[in-house]
């Protein structure tokens, strides 16, 4: 009898510990999400491989709308719509093959590390999920920084690459002209 009672007690405690929602349920909340204009920022802002980003959600919609938030969801996808990089969070789901970080309402930021592979850009998607299981989303695209940011800043040294690049430019213009001329001659 005592054993039966503790089994009943265990089962009862068990129901308190099991997560309240299944994976498919939680992923399903995102399906009907509508676009919204809350703030979604990343640091740094340009895309680089193998780099850790701090992704922050700031829910600056009307305060009255913010009271019933239950979760924030975050995803990172490549231009081919494939999940990319890794979310450094405790709670994650595989939603339609996309690695999805799940933050509770007290967390508004997460670290994400980009993949070591060479992709041109990444789209970070954030969802705000409400108590009625409706959701809004926002996406930002991180592009690679333009190459010009790596040029030397010293003015004395700048003149040399400019001369080199202008003669390169002339060479590029001359090449098709040479081809056309040689076609005409032949
Ligand atoms: C999404 O919206 C469609 C049509 O409005 C509805 O049939 C469906 O049940 C909704 N799905 C979820 C997960 O809320
Ligand atoms: C990625 O970055 C980590 C830490 O900065 C470094 O240890 C590792 O070698 C890098 N991996 C590649 C493939 O560049
Ligand atoms: C990625 O998904 C978006 C919307 O879900 C779609 O508009 C776009 O065509 C997809 N791109 C590729 C390359 O599949
Ligand atoms: C995510 O789930 C799909 C099936 O829904 C499965 O094919 C895929 O391997 C899973 N991906 C990961 C990273 O677990
Ligand atoms: C939210 O998540 C953090 C980190 O996992 C945890 O410390 C905190 O207790 C959670 N808060 C709630 C209300 O679940
Ligand atoms: C992100 O990583 C940094 C450095 O490891 C850490 O100090 C910070 O607490 C992390 N932030 C979050 C939201 O996990
Ligand atoms: C990365 O891709 C760009 C073009 O998309 C290419 O110019 C560059 O050489 C590639 N870098 C590596 C390390 O593969």
Automatic annotation (TrEMBL):
GO terms for cellular component: apical plasma membrane; external side of plasma membrane. GO terms for biological process: cell differentiation; negative regulation of cell-matrix adhesion; positive regulation of cell migration; wound healing, spreading of epidermal cells. The keyword Glycoprotein applies. Keywords: Cell membrane, Differentiation, Glycoprotein, Membrane, Signal. Its main location: membrane. Residues 1-22 form the signal peptide. It is found in: Apical cell membrane. Modulates leading keratinocyte migration and cellular adhesion to matrix proteins during a wound-healing response and promotes wound repair. May play a role during trichilemmal differentiation of the hair follicle. This is Placenta-expressed transcript 1 protein. It comes from Columba livia.
